[in-house]
Amino acid sequence: MRRATDASCLSRPALYDPGMADISAEQVRAEVAEWVAGAWDPSITVAEWWVRLAASGYAAPMLPESVGGRGYPRDLATTVSNVLEEHGLVGPPSGLGLMLAAPTLAVHGSPEQQNEFIPPILDGRSAWCQLFSEPGAGSDLAGLATKAELDGDEYVITGQKVWTSGGQHADWGMLIARTNVDAPKHQGISYFAFRMDQPGVDVRPLREMTGRAMFNEVFIDEARVPAANLIGGLNNGWAVANTTLMVERASLGSGGGGGGTLGIAVPGPIAGHLNRPVGDFVQLRAGAATGAVGGGTLKQLSELARTVGCSGDPTVRQGLAELHTLAEVGRWNLMRARSGQRATSVEGNLAKLLGTHSLRRTREIGNHIIGAQGMLWGTDTLSNGAVQELTVFSPGPSIYGGTDQIQRNIVSERGLGLPKEPGNFRTTPYRDLPKNG
Ligand SMILES: Cc1cc2nc3c(=O)[nH]c(=O)nc-3n(C[C@H](O)[C@H](O)[C@H](O)COP(=O)(O)OP(=O)(O)OC[C@H]3O[C@@H](n4cnc5c(N)ncnc54)[C@H](O)[C@@H]3O)c2cc1C
Fold it and tell me: Which of 113-122, 224-233, 261-270, 422-431 has the lowest mean pLDDT?
């Protein structure tokens, strides 16, 4: 199942440095605030700001220091992004390069691949998308049909991907494709760093109910990828993809990325943001709904309630207290992930479930605050349109990164030890599996 992972071939990402476990959130908070005071300058370009951020290690604090991070556990990395958010500045390059590709490469990439791909992700010079889902392979991701065939020192890729977020801005894709049809489905997949701007790649936008086209379908017809861009070894792609998926769940659950790109500076040359003043994006962010629920969201809703004059309403107060409680539970869940024996191995899945629940509650409480204005659209409405934007965006996170149902399957199988779903699909060669006509 997509995202219902095969624990036997799972490679667990061990990104953070255990030596960092003793650093306190207060210490990190003070260090980041001091750094921001000296580094933030709204008049420099987005590219210049991101170079500063990358050099400080705060662009991706969870990555090991050897590849440009700080080796922080996830809860401290969340502290870093909270401090950056509280200062109202532009955060690290948004999108799936920083969130997924860099951590995956840090675990599975060769030193050469890490040197080539990670620095431009950290300072926003390159943008990545995730070429995983296909029309016939979503939850059942291991059933994917896109094929990669070796031709000299290149693989030739043919197939179709769908729901590719940010594909229109990406110059690289995390591509998984079938390299062995005789092996069981989980064992014949390989993972590639795939150039998007090449002949044979056709990116077509798909419009969502937000009115925008955040994601795309991607048709691939005999495109090419050098064998040197195979990540983690031939036919080992399921293990590599599971690292990406585990990072995705934990990251989405802790409020990282995943939202729309409205008002956010987008990395890579295609979006055209790199040479604009970084201060421009602070203005845009003010009214943007990003899909991430953190301390900043609670603060915004509290201010909104005061503006509307309903901050004394007991149901509003109760709702805001509930959001605060959910955020605290989320924080403790992340802390448990680094607590040795108490860790359950499914904290990432729990974080994602908690995140999607919090997002739905944020939508409901936000709409309770703005009342009938929730039916209006645009920045000249209460909340600058942010609650309305969040409302139409809110079903997405329960689907991407593995649906809520799939997260619960994983928690039950891997966390609680309940039986796996029946069937011999884990041992049958891919070519003999029943397929959709
Ligand atoms: C906003 C958005 C952005 C996305 N971005 C990307 C992206 O950038 N890259 C990418 O590769 N994909 C992306 N996706 C795709 C996403 O990962 C898939 O939509 C998701 O994995 C579900 O797959 P599916 O849509 O094929 O649904 P299906 O797998 O067909 O599922 C349909 C329903 O059946 C349920 N179901 C399926 N199997 C089981 C089971 N075993 N047990 C219980 N219930 C089950 C599901 O929970 C769901 O409710 C995105 C999706 C969205 C909505």
Answer: 261-270
148, β-bridge pairs: 157
Overall pTM > 0.70:
yes
**Interstrand relation of 128-131 and 172-178 (parallel, antiparallel or unpaired):** parallel
Q: Kindly list the catalytic residues.
A: 248
72 lines ligand 1 (CB under 6 A): no
Is residue 261 within 6 Å of ligand 1 at its C-beta?
no
Where are the strands (E) in 293-381, listed by range? none
Looking up residue 209, the CATH number of its domain turns out to be: 2.40.110.10
Structurally, how many domains does the chain consist of? 3
* Rounded CA separation 394/360 (Å): 6
299 occurs within a structural domain = yes
User: Is it the case that residue 344 has pLDDT exceeding 90?
Assistant: no
CB 256 within 8 A of CB 97: no
Whether residue 187 is found in the same domain as residue 290? no
d(CA 155, CA 179): 9
Write out pLDDT tens, residues 73-102. Answer: 888 998 998 899 888 899 999 899 999 999
Residues 83 and 185 both lie in one domain: no
Considering only CA atoms, which of 73, 120, 81 is closest in space to residue 101? 120
* Ligand 1 atom having least distance to the Cα of 208: 1
Statement to judge: residues 153 and 176 lie in one domain:
yes
The Å distance, Cα 388 to ligand 1 centre, comes to 24
Do 287 and 398 belong to one domain?
Answer: yes
Residues 156 and 178 in one domain: yes
The separation between CA 276 and the C-alpha centre of its own chain, rounded to angstroms, equals 25
Q: Is residue 132 part of a domain?
A: yes
Q: State whether residue 66 is helix, strand or coil.
A: helix
- Which residue stretches of 23-94 are H helix? 25-39, 46-56, 74-86
Q: What is the pLDDT of residue 73?
A: 87
Note down the domain range covering 75: 7-124
Shortest-distance atom of ligand 1 to CA 166? 8
Q: 409 and 285, same structural domain?
A: yes
At 264, which amino acid appears?
I
State whether 165 and 108 are in the same domain. Answer: no
Residue-wise pLDDT tens digits, 38-62: 999 999 999 999 999 999 999 999 9
Top mutation candidate among 94, 99, 133 for ligand 1, by most atoms within 8 Å of CB: 133
User: Domain check: are 289 and 223 in the same one?
Assistant: no
